[in-house]
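Can't paste images in this forum, so I'm doing it all in text. The chain is below; anyone willing to post the predicted structure tokens underneath?
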Amino acid sequence: MQSIQLAVQAVCSAGTEVIVPTPAWPNISAAIGIHGARAVSVPLREEDGGWRLHLDDIEAAITPRTTALFLNSPCNPTGWVAHQGLLREFLDLARKHGLWIIADEIYALFHYGDGARAPSFYDIAEEDDQIIFVNSMSKNWAMTGWRVGWISAPAVLGQVFENLIQYSTSGVPSFSQWGAVAALTEGRDFLQQQVARAREGRDCVLRGLQGLNRVKVLPPEGAFYLFLFQSMASPIHAASRLISCGRPASGWHREPPSAPVASIICAFAMPAGRIISRKPCDELAFG
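Text version of the structure:
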């Protein structure tokens, strides 16, 4: 979240606009608003059994006040994933209009297509492209609560971000940094297990929802908003809860002292405040 705030501070000012494909995690629009800028929503379209982003819609929303385009892929909360061809078109559009891209790839490893991660602007960008990558250890590395995030951006913004961080948090606590080092150097097997469980959880949820015949289901291509919180101390007993747009069911964070870290496996958007089940994923009941 701080990475997003810093990115917005770096490229926006009062009266400017940032284009945000929606549905979207609401915090990005809030971050833009508190800095005096305006979030301009461009809805994804429901087509061919999935979500689609049309670049013509994005371009039509660009005005002389537009300074940046925001893209979250894989997307919270829809599970939509931008394929590499779309990313190229998005980047070409930003270059054409001289706009910054704020690329939120926090769910990159939770991708159910080919490859070890979702398509990324890293795959196609030139060194001087105006792209600010914002990311975190929270989701891909199961480190929610450690508050470790980062920004990758062109060197021209180096001093800008150094100043913004110096005048806010001054940096990340050293013990959290060492936790991130451990996750990066020793956590590969664990993370692969989590992604596999995420895929299983998605398929379980889809089967349940499709069986209701009372809801329309758009199969997500990436991370989506069913939270499966798994105790690190007792992996067999994974508690799952369906929640609304990032609002946890009461008490989910109260893990026992022996399980200080809860792993977010995957996610799916559901009606506000309604808990459908508190059973393990393979026993989820729908109705």
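Residues 226-287 have pLDDT under 50 and may be disordered. DSSP finds seven helices and eleven strands in the chain.
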